[in-house]
Structure formats: structure tokens, C-alpha cells
Write a structure and sequence with these properties.
The chain has 192 residues and is mainly beta. Helices cover 6% and strands 42% of the residues. The strands form two sheets. The protein has a six-stranded mixed beta sheet, with no helix packed on it. A six-stranded antiparallel beta sheet has the order 2-12-11-8-4-5. The termini are far apart. The mean pLDDT is 89.
Length: 192
């Protein structure tokens, strides 16, 4: 039975699940039905950051145009341009055993592609969630449902996986940003 988390909650991943080295991060969402004249395209991304929360190398920003980190520690399985259907809309595979030593946190975010042009924001998105699944046995470890707390935001840091000693933990963040992917990149120290 998966653990259901609320915003701000933290939980051990590797300490309470001995032998856990590889997880699937599943992200899903629905768009509210409204006539805006353009389809929604939400995109998941991962920022492999150091202790200061900054990405040291552009190749450690994982998204639809850079699907795999240099060591293979994080892999994006591909862009879903519609979000149609049930279950995960996009997934990332995280292999802790391949994580570079300078990476101490992985920010997982979702942005709305061309949000300003299409006049879209997270106030028009519902049922957003993230779940962590053990890649070895496909068992869901935890789930965090974001709720409907957003209005004008065009990007959301959904969660962070972070290193504490030799163990990895999960932090349910749910923090919205205006300014889309560019604002998120600046937050993690990347030039846009």
C-alpha cells in the first residue's frame, strides 16, 4: 500500500526500502475542459542540483530535448503532448546507484509549454500527482496529489528527491512559479 503524502511532508525512500536503487517517477494531470483555442502540452523535467540547489552542467537538466543525464542516473521516457488517458502522463527513471557525487537533490517539475502564448496556467489543470514506484517490482511506494491550489502559475516544482547522508528522501513541495520553464531554470542556476 502506497503512502499518501501532503504538501511539505518528507519521507525516507532508500532507508525504509533497503536495496532500493532504481525508481520510476510517474507524473499525471488532467486539464479542465475550457475553450481556449489551443491544446495543453505539459512537460516534466528534472534538475540534478548540488547542495546549494544549483545545476552545475546544462546536461544535468533533463527534459524533452535532453532525455538522459550524462551518467544515466536520470532518464525521461518521452514527451506526452496531450495528457490524455488515465495513469502516468510522463515518467522519469531515477537510478541512485548512477548518481554523480555532486548531485544532492533532484527537483522534479512540470511546466505548461507556450503557456503565455496560449493563455494557459495551472489554474486550468486538475488531478495533478506524482508517484514513486520501485522499478524492480513495480510497487508504488508513495503518492502526492497536488490539489487545486494554483491560479496564474505556469510551472510547478512538484517534489524533490534529496540525499541525507547516504540515504535518499522525498519532499512533497508543490511550489508554483510564474514565468514557466525560464523562471524554473533561473531558480536552479541555469542561463536561459
Amino acid at each position: 500500500m502506497a503512502i499518501q503524502l501532503s504538501k511539505g511532508q518528507r519521507i525516507d525512500l532508500t532507508k525504509t526500502n533497503p536495496g532500493l536503487t532504481k525508481v520510476i517517477i510517474g507524473l499525471g494531470w488532467d486539464t479542465n475542459k475550457y475553450s481556449g483555442g489551443a491544446d495543453f502540452d505539459l512537460d516534466a523535467s528534472a534538475f540534478l542540483a548540488n547542495e546549494q540547489g544549483k545545476v552545475q552542467n546544462d546536461l544535468e537538466f533533463i527534459f524533452y530535448n535532453n532525455l538522459t543525464s550524462p551518467t544515466g542516473a536520470v532518464e525521461h521516457t518521452g514527451d506526452n503532448r496531450t495528457g490524455e488517458g488515465d495513469g502516468d502522463d510522463e515518467q522519469m527513471i531515477v537510478d541512485f546507484s548512477l548518481m554523480p557525487s555532486h548531485v544532492s537533490k533532484i527537483g522534479i517539475a512540470v511546466t505548461i509549454h507556450d503557456a503565455e502564448t496560449r493563455k494557459q496556467n495551472f489554474g486550468q489543470v486538475s488531478n495533478a500527482f506524482v508517484r514513486v514506484v520501485n522499478a524492480d517490482d513495480n510497487q508504488e511506494i508513495l503518492r502526492y496529489d497536488l490539489g487545486e491550489d494554483f491560479s496564474i502559475e505556469t510551472a510547478v516544482v512538484i517534489c524533490e528527491l534529496y540525499k541525507h547522508g547516504s540515504d535518499w528522501k522525498f519532499n512533497a513541495i508543490g511550489s508554483g512559479f510564474s514565468g514557466g520553464l525560464a523562471a524554473l531554470c533561473r531558480n536552479y542556476g541555469l542561463e536561459v
